[in-house]
Design goal:
Strand content: 5-15%
Number of domains: 2
Helix content: 55-70%
Number of strands: 6
Radius of gyration: 19 Å
Structural class: alpha/beta
Number of helices: 7
CATH architecture of the largest domain: Alpha-Beta Complex
CATH superfamily of the largest domain: 2-enoyl-CoA Hydratase, Chain A, domain 1
Shape: flat
CATH class of the largest domain: Alpha Beta
């Protein structure tokens, strides 16, 4: 899932963006969790936020309730890319188009494996990744990709 953040993404809107795989923001975007300024707790948002921004950045946003601009959001890990406001949807659609051209099975397996290995200790994660690596060699998309590479396709 790709989030296109344009304008304000606060509270649940920011939480929704953080639950996406990729976040592309307009240079005019502002993100944050102002719940604490209203006596509320951004409870559900903490799950995604702590994973993308780390403990110190997450707590800073959650405890202060401050909003950050797109540049700071990128610096602390909330946003993958910041683009000029006028180019936001062009950039997002180009990224989505590039992903649509990829192997659907490889993308799905990559996302699943990423979630799994980030919850395991290093040795178990490496063992699990090695098992999945071997299994995916038998997926037709992988076979076709290997044949194309051997034939000289380096794209």
């Amino acid at each position: 899932m790709i989030a296109a953040v344009n304008g304000f993404a606060v509270a649940g809107g920011c939480g929704l963006a953080m639950s996406c795989d990729i976040v592309i923001a307009s240079d005019t975007a502002r993100l944050g969790y102002p719940e604490v300024t209203r006596g509320l707790v951004a409870a559900m948002a903490m799950v995604s936020l702590s994973r993308v921004a780390g403990r110190h950045n997450a707590l800073d946003l959650l405890l202060s309730g401050r909003l950050v601009d797109a540049a700071e959001a990128q610096r602390i890990g909330l946003v993958n890319r910041v683009v000029p406001h006028a180019d936001l949807m062009t950039e997002v659609l180009a990224y989505a188009g590039a992903m649509a051209a990829r192997s659907a099975s490889a993308l799905r397996i990559t996302k699943e494996l990423y979630r799994q290995v980030t919850e395991l200790d290093y040795d178990r994660a490496m063992d699990h990744a090695a098992d999945i690596n071997m299994l995916t060699r038998y997926v037709e998309d992988a076979k076709a990709g290997s044949r194309a590479f051997a034939a000289g396709d380096r794209s």
